[in-house]
Automatic annotation (TrEMBL):
The name this protein goes by in its record: Pyruvate ferredoxin oxidoreductase
SUPFAM superfamilies, per database record: Pyruvate-ferredoxin oxidoreductase, PFOR, domain III
Signal sequence region: none
UniProt keyword terms in alphabetical order: Oxidoreductase, Pyruvate
Organism field: Candidatus Falkowbacteria bacterium RIFOXYA2_FULL_47_19
InterPro entries: Oxidoreductase_gamma_subunit, PorC_KorC, Pyrv/ketoisovalerate_OxRed_cat, Pyrv_flavodox_OxRed_cen
A single GO molecular function term of this UniProt record: oxidoreductase activity, acting on the aldehyde or oxo group of donors, iron-sulfur protein as acceptor
Domain Pyruvate/ketoisovalerate oxidoreductase catalytic: 10-177
Record carries keyword Oxidoreductase: yes
Superkingdom: Bacteria
Length: 179
């Protein structure tokens, strides 16, 4: 089983990112699960969402305490939230930042750290600073847990009622995937 934990702030599409991972994995013929963890948080407050992918039915329902993949949509969380809690030397981390990975302060091996300026891509392609789909393009490329085609299909499914937004997000996913 592959376990993914996503950190971000309320309003950044963290929950949607987890849902898109699960939909894409399902589109690839795998079993998947996605769920959020938040209470009465408001826009801008730190939140988490989780996704699991497996070839067998998933029975676990608890939070993900030891992720295989860690996605950080807002790099400011690195200094305010223990985002690397439960990670090990095999955990892959994908961070939205304009910094080089050598500048990142996180207790994980540098070879497992992947950085992408998802904010820049989101502003260029979508016109808004919502980075969830962008960072999922990097997730698909780095991990191979979902295919690019299934991720694009998931975006189309999620945004079926907003075709223009779906097209912009697909362009952003492809751009991130190809970087």
């Amino acid at each position: 089983m592959h376990q993914i934990r996503i950190h971000g702030r309320g309003g950044q599409g963290v929950v949607t990112a987890a849902e898109l991972i699960a939909i894409a994995a399902f589109n690839d013929g795998r079993k998947s699960q996605a769920f959020p963890s938040f209470g009465v948080e408001r826009t801008g407050a730190p939140i988490e969402a989780f996704a699991r992918i497996d070839d067998k039915p998933i029975r676990r329902r608890e939070h993900i305490y030891e992720p295989d993949v860690l996605i950080i949509q807002d790099s400011s969380l690195l200094s305010s939230v223990p985002v690397d809690k439960g990670c090990n030397k095999k955990t892959m981390v994908i961070i939205n930042t304009a910094k080089q990975k050598t500048e990142i302060k996180i207790n994980l091996p540098p070879k497992n750290i992947y950085v992408i300026d998802a904010t820049k891509i989101a502003l260029e392609e979508i016109g808004r600073n919502i980075v969830n789909t962008v960072i999922l393009g990097a997730f698909a490329r780095v991990t191979g847990l979902v295919s690019l085609e299934s991720l694009k299909k998931a975006v189309l499914q999620k945004f079926a009622d907003k075709p223009d937004l779906a097209d912009k997000n697909i362009k952003a996913v492809e751009k991130a995937y190809n970087l």
